[in-house]
Structure prediction request, 103 residues.
Amino acid sequence: MIVAIVTFTLPRPWTVQEAAAVFKSTAPKYLGKPGLVRKHYYITETGDRAGGIYFWKSRADAQACYTSEWKAMVAEKYGAPADILYAEVPVSVDNVANAIETA
Prediction:
């Protein structure tokens, strides 16, 4: 599994309520996205940075999502380009399922 942490610096701080409204508007685009296991949106406590934490089946799945069109949409919507960090997920702890998963 791959985690992609997408971060962008906002041109002005957002409240949690502002962020939630914007995030809810884009969330449906990710339902059924090939290779996407889960996505969590986030806003920092200071409201100056936001983004998403994506869990993908593979890096190829992630890269298929983060196209030049996607990057342009993010820059337009959030007023800043996205920074994407990719990382391998060798072990996961799932407290809902009471399970530990390994790659």
Summary: Residues 2-102 form a domain with the Alpha-Beta Plaits fold (CATH 3.30.70.100). The mean pLDDT is 96. Residues 16-26 form the longest helix (11 residues). The longest strand covers residues 2-9.
